[in-house]
Amino acid sequence: MYPKIIVQPNYFPAWWCDNINNYMMQNVAASSDLGKKGVRRCDVRGLVPGMKPYKDVFNSLMGFAKNNINHLDVDIDYQIDGPCIQHITYMPGHGVGWHEDTMVTSAALKLERYKDLKIDRKVSLTVMLSSQDEYTGGEFIFEKGGDRKHNVEGKGTVAMFTSHTEHMVTEITSGVRNILFVFITGPSWR
């Protein structure tokens, strides 16, 4: 299956990104994530329902998904996998090795509305909260075999792609790279 990727530069305004980033950095403790077999090295903060900006951020991300999902040709339910929207901070030495995001979600299977339906991560959505002049390294690369890069740089830039797409983020060599990230679920792949 050919990976489908949408990149929309500067979709969210810089002030929106700065507000979210500042809120998360000031109000939510980070936990280090060394990931499975060292695939992901970063600090993670969770934006959960009930937090001041959650509803605005959730609605903004799902609005982008609704406006662009026809380009990916997948069925989604506009719900996120897990309890939160992830705010991820990459510092020098941090990055993400080659991986896919597809899996059956344990969180979704616990929801009553899905008790008889298998749910998968269908779409991954990333919002850049940092400008490319705030860090070096941290290139977002898709398709392991072809090392195809996409210009997923610039504060407010959104990348949305099918979750079975192989991708990575090269190691940060200086500065700090902040993003928002969610997995959007849907009925099992056919």
What keywords describe this structure?
190 residues; alpha+beta; eleven-stranded antiparallel beta sheet; two-stranded antiparallel ribbon; 13 strands; globular
What does this protein structure show overall?
The protein is of the alpha+beta class and 190 residues long. It has a single domain, classed as q2cbj1_9rhob like domain (Jelly Rolls), CATH 2.60.120.620. Helices cover 17% and strands 35% of the residues. The chain has helices spanning 14-27, 54-68, 106-109; strands at 5-8, 31-33, 40-47, 85-90, 95-99, 119-128, 135-137, 140-142, 148-149, 158-162, 167-169, 172-175, 177-187. The strands form two sheets. Strands 1, 2, 3, 4, 5, 6, 8, 9, 10, 11 and 13 form an eleven-stranded antiparallel beta sheet that branches. A two-stranded antiparallel sheet has the order 7-12. The longest helix is centred in the first third of the chain and has 15 residues, at 54-68.
